[in-house]
């Protein structure tokens, strides 16, 4: 209730503006920004109050169907923050920035990534889709360029010719992915964020992000599933 009643100060507004213009902000940067905004606006600052600070902003964003959401990087487990438009349930967020054919390539790339075993799709497999698009066929050179833009705009990440969903995409499209890929999309059993790159328990089917697997099994002689207690058969990273 105190959070709901809390006033949105200039510090809150400035923090929100920067987050919106960044698209996505890494946790340590968000903490620095929090301190900077509070000190500039001469309002109370406490190092451990970032979540409360964000809750105040979110209470004011609620009527606008917007929210600052926290997610973790599947690569290294670091926290990230992004402003999410809750009214946009599909890939509509991207519709104003990309053409219909580019969006179709993105959706098909998303299919490959989410339906894959490891949360990655090779550039070869993605480029093979380019001449099978319904909107119109796309030349491979053109498709390569579009993929590059998706990486620059932080919807996709690329490593050695393998593509996965960027943390920004996972935070912003979590609801879309969970409702459109119900059979395969799962949340991490440890941090409860959507897990695209994950290890799955062979016995009960729960999934965990690789950084969460690392953290959870650290120091355990025999890794056992946190849900069913069966032996964790995947190679722990």
UniProtKB/TrEMBL annotation:
One GO term of the biological process aspect: double-strand break repair via homologous recombination
UniProt KW keywords: Chromosome, DNA damage, DNA recombination, DNA repair, Metal-binding, Nucleus, Telomere, Transferase, Ubl conjugation pathway, Zinc, Zinc-finger
InterPro entries xref list: Nse1, Nse1_RING_C4HC3-type, WH-like_DNA-bd_sf, Znf_RING, Znf_RING/FYVE/PHD
Gene Ontology annotations for the cellular component aspect, listed alphabetically: chromosome, telomeric region; nucleus; Smc5-Smc6 complex
Protein EC: 2.3.2.27
Record domain RING-type: where: 188-229
GO molecular function: ubiquitin protein ligase activity; zinc ion binding
Catalytic activity field: S-ubiquitinyl-[E2 ubiquitin-conjugating enzyme]-L-cysteine + [acceptor protein]-L-lysine = [E2 ubiquitin-conjugating enzyme]-L-cysteine + N(6)-ubiquitinyl-[acceptor protein]-L-lysine
Subcellular location field: Chromosome, Telomere; Nucleus
EC class of the enzyme, as a word: transferase
Biological role stated in the UniProt entry: RING-type zinc finger-containing E3 ubiquitin ligase that assembles with melanoma antigen protein (MAGE) to catalyze the direct transfer of ubiquitin from E2 ubiquitin-conjugating enzyme to a specific substrate. Involved in maintenance of genome integrity, DNA damage response and DNA repair.
UniProt subunit comment: Component of the Smc5-Smc6 complex.
Family designation: Belongs to the NSE1 family.
Name this polypeptide is given: Non-structural maintenance of chromosomes element 1 homolog
Gene name of the record: Nsmce1
């Amino acid at each position: 209730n105190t959070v709901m009643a809390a006033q949105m100060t200039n510090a809150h507004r400035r923090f929100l503006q920067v987050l919106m213009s960044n698209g996505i902000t890494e946790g340590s940067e968000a903490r620095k920004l929090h301190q900077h905004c509070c000190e500039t606006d001469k309002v109370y600052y406490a190092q451990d109050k970032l979540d409360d600070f964000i809750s105040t902003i979110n209470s004011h964003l609620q009527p606008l169907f917007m929210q600052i959401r926290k997610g973790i990087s599947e690569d290294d487990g670091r926290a990230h923050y992004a402003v999410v438009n809750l009214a946009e349930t599909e890939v509509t967020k991207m519709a104003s920035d990309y053409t219909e054919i580019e969006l179709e390539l993105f959706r098909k790339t998303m299919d490959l990534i989410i339906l894959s075993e490891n949360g990655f799709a090779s550039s070869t497999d993605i480029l093979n889709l380019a001449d099978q698009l319904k909107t119109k066929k796309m030349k491979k050179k053109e498709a390569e360029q579009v993929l590059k833009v998706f990486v620059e705009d932080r919807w996709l990440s690329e490593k050695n010719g393998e593509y996965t969903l960027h943390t920004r995409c996972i935070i912003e499209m979590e609801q879309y992915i969970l409702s459109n890929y119900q059979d395969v999309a799962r949340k991490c059993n440890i941090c409860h964020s959507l897990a695209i790159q994950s290890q799955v328990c062979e016995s009960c089917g729960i999934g965990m992000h690789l950084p969460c697997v690392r953290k959870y099994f650290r120091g355990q002689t025999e890794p056992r599933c946190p849900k069913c207690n069966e032996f964790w058969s995947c190679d722990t990273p």
